[in-house]
Structure formats: C-alpha cells, structure tokens
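LOG
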Amino acid sequence: MLNGKNGSMNYRQLFEVTYKGKKVLLTGHTGFKGSWMLLWLHTAGAIVKGYALTPDSENSLYNMIGGDNLCDSVIEDIRNRERLESEIDQFQPDFVFHFAAQPLVRRSYEEPDYTFDVNIMGTANVLEGVRKLGKPCAVIIITTDKVYENNETGVAYCEDDRLGGYDPYSASKAGAEIVINSYRNSFFNPSKYEQHQKSIASVRAGNVIGGGDRAKDRIIPDIIRAFTNNETVVVRNPVSVRPWQHVLEPLSGYLLMGAKMVMDPARFSTAVNFGPYPSDALTVEEVVKLAISE
C-alpha cells in the first residue's frame, strides 16, 4: 500500500487517480514497450495521443491489442520537429512519455548516423515541443541502463555515475541524457518550477523481456524464432550476466514516477534507475536453459 496525499491506496488506484481523464502524449506507442504502456494508460482512463512510426508487422503487439482504438494515433517520424511540435501544441498534454527510439545495439553499428539522429535529436525535439507548451506538464523520457561508462566492476550503477557508451546505441542514449540534463538546467530548472511548471525525468532500465517483443538480436525473440524454425539457438555471450526484468516491472515504475512528479515535481525532476534485485540477475546461458525447459 502507498501513503500519500490521497490516503492509502494500491498502485492500480494510484494510477487511476493520477492518469484518469488526463492527456498523455506517448511517443513510440506502436513498439513493444510503447504498446504495453498504451494498454496500461488506456486501462487507467487516460486520454492518449500516440506518435510513432508504423508498426513493424501486421502481427505486432500494437495491432494485437487494437491500438488504433485505444488512442489518437499519429504515424510520423520523431525527427519531424515541426509536426511533433504542432501535435504537442494541439494536444496540450498533461504528461509525456517518450519511448520512440532506435533501440538495438547491432543496428546501431549498421546505422550509427540514424541511431544518433533518432535518439539524441528526437529527444531534443520532444523537449523543445514541451518548452513551448504553456501549461504544467510532467515528462518521462525512457533511456536505458546502458548510458553509463562500462567500468567492468560488476557493481550496479548509481544515477550519478559517469555517462558513456562503447557502441553507438549506448553512446546515443548517453547523449540523450546530456540533452535532457541541459534542458532541465537551462529551461526547466527544478528550483524555478513555479515559473515554468515542467518536471523532466529520465528513467533508465534495460534487458526487458515479455510478450509481444519480436525485435531482432534480442534473446527471447531469437529463442522463439529458432524453436519455431527448428533451428539451433545461437548465443553470442553465454556468460554475460544481465539484470533481466519483465516489461511490466519498469513500466509500473515509469507510471509511478509520473505520479510522484505530480506530488512533488521539483524533487522528482531527475534521473532514476529501474531494475531487479542483484540476486535476480542471470547469465544469458541460464535464461536460454530456462526458456528451453519451459
């Protein structure tokens, strides 16, 4: 149970109190995590406008849940700043959840320029649209746990650890964090919240698994495709330890973050990590064996 200004309540009740009847701009709503977030926001009673590219397949999670019936869906590129700003201005959101991104490490090696453009400038475009919004708004920007400089210590990262990124994907997300912090300091400084009335948070999670994920080069979808095609499961780094978490775990954290930002916008205008307990981390090989045993 939670104790706050609304009394004692569970998370479902808190999310309904926070989001019911509120306007939520959700970028990346046609993707894996975005589709789950869309369904959850709709269940909580939010009025959602989605902004994303076309779903990647006819049997996408977005199409399976009837996403077009759950939101006002705008199919457009996050790099189209003028269109994005226009949609934000017309919609006048109370919340923004920014999921739209190029999320794959392997693809970032193939298309580094696209990855940097989408992940860094796409984030800047969202923040610029919010900067021109003349009303209070809580903005939750989804990055990744890979924004940190990899020091190979095996110790979990803290929010104030040094940012970095070996591969283009990680570097692009670290770059997005720098953009977020710059806007937070320059235009949305928490100490001046009463003037601008914008609360800006970045939320960092990774190794998310769950139903509806069909992306290439992700362990669970790769296993399912191999089983379906009667092929051998190819594992690149079997001894790598990862903090695996089901998609609903970080999403509940993001929704909770939005609720906290309403309660105390200055305090929660910050960066927050979301992940499982260290004892719940598994190697890639252990995850593959669990999948095979099921």
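LOG (cont.) second protein
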Amino acid sequence: MYASLPLTGPAAGLGREVRRGAELALETTRQPGVELVALDSFDEDREKRSTANARRAIEDPETLAYLGDFHSSQVMETAPLLGDAGVLQVAPVATFIGLHGSTLVRLMPHDGVGARAIADWLAEAAVRDLLVVHDHDEGYGVPVGAMCVDAARERGIVVRSRPVWDHDEAPAADIGEAQAVLYVGVAGSGVAGLWRELHAADPTLWLLGTEGVADGWLAHELPPAAAERTRFFVAQRAPFGFYGFEAMALILDAIAQSGGDRAAIVRAARMTRDRDSILGRYSIDDRGHTTTTAYGRLAVAGGQLVWDDGVRA
C-alpha cells in the first residue's frame, strides 16, 4: 500500500508522526505480503505532488490501498482519481466538510462537527452574544465561519459575523455586546496583536479560535491574562501518530476481510460499524465520514497549548 504524507517541509514533523503510527500498526499486525511505500507529498505545488503520488499508486497493479493525503486540498484532488481506480483511500487527518469520494474514508470529524462543538461550549460557558470573525479564504475561513454562525444561532446565541479587520480599522470598537470573539481562519503574523488588543478592550472577553489558529507560536506570544481567556477548537483528540496507526489498522482489517480484492477492500472499510479503536468507537457513514462527534479543545498555560478540561469563568 502507498502513503502520501508531508515528509519534508513545514508539516514534516506531523507527517512523519502519522507515518510512524502507520508503521507501528503494520509491525504489530505482521500481515504477510503487505508493504508500505511512503511518498513525500510536500512541494511548492502540494496538490500537484499528491496527484502524482496517487497516480503512481493507481498504476501499480499490486496496490491495495492509499493512506493519505494529509491536507484537505490534496484529498480533494486525489479522491476522484483513487475513486475511479477503485482504490481504498483513508485520509487520517483531513477535515474539510466538502471532501467526498467513492472509495474515501476519513478519520477526523469534519468542520461542521467542529462548529457544533464550539456552539455547545459557548452554551456551557453561558455566552449569549458572539462575534465571528473570519479570514478571506473561500475554502476555509468563509464557509467554516458561516457554519459556526449557524450552529451558534441554533443554540439560541445572538451572533454577528464579519471578515477580519483591515489595518486601518479598530477591532476594539467593533466588539459591541459580544461576550466572545471566535476567529475562523489561519494564524497570520498579526493575530497575536489582535488577541492582545481584544483582551485589552475587554478582559472578560472569551477569545476563541478554530484549528487554523491553534498554533504553538501564538500560545507562546500571549500574555497570561489573555491566555486564560483563550480556547482553541481542533478535530484532533490524540497525537497524530494515533491517526496514522488507526488508518493502517483499518486498512489491514479491510484487506484481511476481503482476500485482497480492491472492490471488496473498499466495501469492508466503508461498511465499518461500531469499531473499537485507539481513537475510540466509531462507524463510517455512507459518505465515508467518521461518525464520531468528539472534538478537541485546547487552552494555553505557561505559553504552551494544553488540553482543556472544562470551562473556567
């Protein structure tokens, strides 16, 4: 089987962690005749690279499955190719809600699940008024921001939404009655300043971010008082190696059930029901999505990202 993961470049540490988890699962199972070929998916044009990786796997007549890709944008390109070829694809960490494919299985909950998890937390924290701020990315910030607005309104929360402020605008003047500001987007160089400005304007304000903002450098930059009011919401609930391990374990179980036939491997994986795994119990629905709704939440302590254990006012 083939794996397409970033083994060099900025995400290399995470990609290698996923690969090592997959290798551990393969070593543990010791299924005869199964070999893992790990391909690097990093490139200036990472979608082009992952497409080349998928084509290499498809053209190999002995290929039984494909573990990857890492980024949602890559899965969007490779899923149609692998689907047409009838090759099982297990994407361990991609989260974009729009991913689909006839042979695709994904192990992390999608962004819509995340939006509902944020809304649940807001209700638990007794937040009644929310400001959602999103970046200009039409593939992430804009649509996920809209999901967060809808999910919060379903919980009875008053919500306003706007794009991220320009340099000549004053974010503090736009807070209004909001008790929390949720940033949906990627952590650019100005986000630490934004966090400090919002906290200075209202020290009781909850400062929330989706997983694109959950970055260690931002946690390090936050002053303790602002850090105490900060939470990040992420699909990840375990080390990335766990997702690589489970992706490989699921593939190997599907191969064992199918006798090595590609179509039977896909059916076995997509028919997964109530599977007890290192990630907990889950099923795979008819779109290839995991049914788990458990979502991760991070706080900041001592300049580090840590798992959050509950709401603290």
